[in-house]
Write a sequence for this structure.
């Protein structure tokens, strides 16, 4: 006869405490991340971003090492292979993402990146790196819109602003961690260089960087496999059987996505603000060191470091502020205000002649830029139907890439042109109300950049003016009624 042993009072109490702690943990996860499924996806983004930055450092080091006497050219070729495909293939990637199972797309892309990264330590020429970079970018072009399309399906609408803030933190907050990890891998490689087989595996700093990056994508594939994503609900007319993928159907679906950008006022406002705003704001990237030297009188590297730090802190504050705002102000209105704020901040910052006043105002630029990013993606997720998300997010990324390329390639030439004109006609000095202002080409160009951002604000405002007016009327009626 077997006597069943009853749990003691202490054991029952322990089980109750454990159950209570699990409930509290689950409630905390849902409160912060919107849902437990998104919490898993956020971990994927966190680890994946760490791997992306680590891979960025490793591939740059590999290109420099394999570039021989022209490392700059080698690095340029490798990173061109990461930028150029997005300009031409991102729209097609959006069509495919809207057709295929997005969860499967993410898993296959992650496994594809694992395969490529495991082979990269054995690359022997720059062209191996170029081809690998091209393939990695194709997988990224599919993975990102698939991920962005999935988020609104697993997160309540009221939590989208918060989770987009968390997404930005995961993307950019891992940069210093990746840099520290890459340094650690270099020291670890020195320790294991005498181990049997380490030479055959190319387990130096660069090789270990690629291997570590591959593990992050393997982790991503495994985590995504266990994420529960609801079945997609198709609305008319998309619920009809789609034609087979061919040139005609692809063009039709591309046109459908781009037409929606110009028809939907919120999507049009976000795309206009991001596109024109990044053309203006992106000029700060190549012109920052010149501004620090010519206008602020600082060492270019040190001055730019201070400005970049201020910008980063501002972005973090902006993202956190929007995440904690609890939507006390209309998201559409706050988005437009942030675009104007970014342009005005850049104009005043580049009007300063001292490093620290300029850095403080660049911090405000970062604050508004962080708000623009979070609110822009939130508005897109709310406004775009499920069947169009892949194409819309791919279009947005195309606009972002193209705008940054225009800003970084044209900005220095515009500054040089203005510099010559200012020197010839004004001797780089103008007098306004008995106040002499130093106007080198870089300052004039950054003023122009700030005006472009303000222009983006007017474009966004014109697109959503009716929505803002309707919100104002609704609030007035509500307040009158109360």
């Amino acid at each position: 006869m077997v006597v069943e042993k009853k749990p003691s009072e202490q054991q029952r109490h322990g089980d109750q405490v454990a159950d209570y702690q699990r409930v509290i943990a689950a409630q905390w996860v849902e409160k912060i991340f919107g849902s437990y499924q998104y919490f898993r996806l956020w971990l994927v983004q966190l680890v994946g971003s760490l791997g992306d930055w680590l891979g960025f450092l490793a591939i740059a080091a590999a290109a420099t090492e394999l570039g021989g006497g022209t490392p700059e050219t080698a690095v340029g070729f490798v990173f061109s292979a990461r930028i150029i495909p997005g300009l031409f293939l991102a729209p097609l990637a959006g069509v495919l993402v809207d057709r295929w199972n997005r969860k499967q797309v993410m898993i296959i892309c992650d496994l594809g990146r694992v395969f490529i990264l495991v082979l990269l330590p054995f690359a022997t020429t720059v062209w191996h790196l170029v081809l690998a970079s091209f393939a990695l970018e194709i997988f990224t072009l599919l993975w990102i819109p698939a991920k962005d399309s999935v988020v609104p399906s697993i997160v309540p609408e009221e939590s989208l602003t918060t989770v987009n803030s968390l997404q930005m933190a995961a993307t950019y907050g891992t940069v210093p961690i990746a840099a520290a990890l890459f340094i650690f891998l270099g020291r670890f490689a020195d320790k294991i260089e005498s181990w049997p087989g380490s030479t055959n595996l190319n387990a130096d700093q660069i090789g270990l960087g690629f291997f570590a990056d591959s593990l992050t994508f393997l982790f991503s594939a495994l985590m995504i496999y266990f994420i529960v994503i609801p079945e997609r609900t198709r609305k008319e007319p998309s619920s009809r059987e789609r034609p087979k993928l061919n040139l005609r159907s692809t063009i039709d679906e591309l046109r459908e996505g781009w037409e929606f950008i110009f028809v939907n006022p919120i999507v049009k406002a976000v795309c206009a603000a991001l596109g024109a705003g990044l053309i203006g704001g992106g000029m700060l990237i190549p012109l920052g060191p010149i501004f620090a030297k010519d206008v602020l009188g600082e060492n270019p590297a040190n001055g730019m470091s201070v400005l970049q730090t201020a910008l980063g802190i501002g972005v973090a504050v902006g993202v956190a502020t929007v995440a904690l705002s609890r939507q006390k102000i209309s998201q559409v209105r706050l988005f437009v205000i942030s675009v104007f704020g970014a342009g005005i901040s850049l104009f005043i910052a580049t009007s300063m002649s001292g490093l620290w006043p300029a850095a403080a105002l660049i911090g405000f630029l970062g604050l508004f830029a962080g708000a623009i990013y979070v609110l822009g993606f939130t508005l897109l997720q709310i406004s775009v139907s499920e069947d169009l998300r892949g194409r819309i997010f791919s279009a947005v990324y195309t606009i972002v890439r193209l705008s940054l390329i225009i800003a970084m390639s044209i900005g220095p030439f515009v500054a040089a042109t203005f510099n010559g004109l200012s020197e010839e006609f004004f001797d780089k000095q103008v007098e306004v109300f008995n106040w002499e202002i130093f106007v080198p080409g870089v300052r004039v160009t950054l003023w122009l950049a700030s005006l472009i951002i303000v222009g983006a604000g007017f474009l966004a405002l014109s697109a959503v003016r009716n929505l803002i007016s309707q919100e104002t009327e609704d609030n007035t009626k509500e307040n009158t009624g109360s």
Summary: The first strand starts at residue 429 and ends at 432. The mean pLDDT is 80. Strands lie at 429-432, 435-438. The chain has two domains: 21-229, 254-473.
